Recover the amino acids of this structure.
């Protein structure tokens, strides 16, 4: 029986192309690279949204608030065997002024919410098929805060990113640390090579 993997993330899950301002071709997106390779083993459910936060700080474009839409997204796709949470980069933007502790708390909320749902007998039967699922975190990837993305991120944002990585390293959680990723010229979004590398990192964790 094929396993289902829900990927809940931001623009790097969606496949944002800085060069064209559009979405990169399906076959170049890291999820679809894996989908093609494991088409007999896994069903990948791609739920990426540009600008999505781990938290709920977005006031104008509220659809970007990750917490608000997660439960409905999960239940729409459930039951699944694995949930990959790929969020936190947008939360580090200067305009949100979030502490690393708050971002960590927001990221952990997804695990806690799934565990709470699993503890409910009716939810467990309907949305989990009676068995627990695997949760994987793709931690915030590197960004070019020195040059190309300096209006969005600065050295303090990078310091917070490292604090998030350090915290999750010390927890007994499934994590993917995506450092030294190849980016488009905006210094934020994964390039074609970046998507290929991300596919390999996720493949190892599967």
């Amino acid at each position: 029986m094929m396993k289902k993997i829900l990927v809940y993330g931001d623009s790097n899950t969606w496949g944002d192309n800085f060069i064209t301002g559009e979405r990169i071709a399906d076959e170049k997106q890291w999820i679809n690279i894996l989908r093609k390779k494991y088409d007999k083993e896994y069903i990948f459910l791609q739920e990426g949204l540009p600008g999505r936060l781990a938290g709920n700080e977005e006031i104008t474009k509220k659809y970007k608030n990750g917490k608000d839409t997660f439960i409905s997204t999960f239940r729409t796709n459930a039951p699944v065997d694995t949930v990959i949470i790929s969020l936190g980069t947008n939360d580090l933007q200067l305009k949100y002024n979030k502490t690393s502790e708050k971002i960590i708390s927001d990221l952990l909320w997804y695990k806690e919410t799934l565990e709470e749902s699993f503890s409910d007998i009716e939810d467990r039967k309907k949305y989990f098929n009676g068995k627990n699922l695997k949760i994987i975190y793709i931690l915030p990837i590197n960004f070019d805060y020195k040059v190309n993305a300096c209006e969005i991120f600065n050295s303090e944002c990078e310091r917070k990113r490292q604090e998030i990585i350090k915290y999750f390293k010390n927890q007994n959680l499934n994590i993917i640390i995506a450092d030294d990723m190849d980016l488009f010229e905006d210094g934020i979004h994964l390039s074609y090579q970046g998507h290929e590398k991300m596919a390999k990192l996720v493949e190892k964790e599967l």
The first strand starts at residue 3 and ends at 9. The domain at 3-205 is CATH 3.40.50.1110 (Rossmann fold).
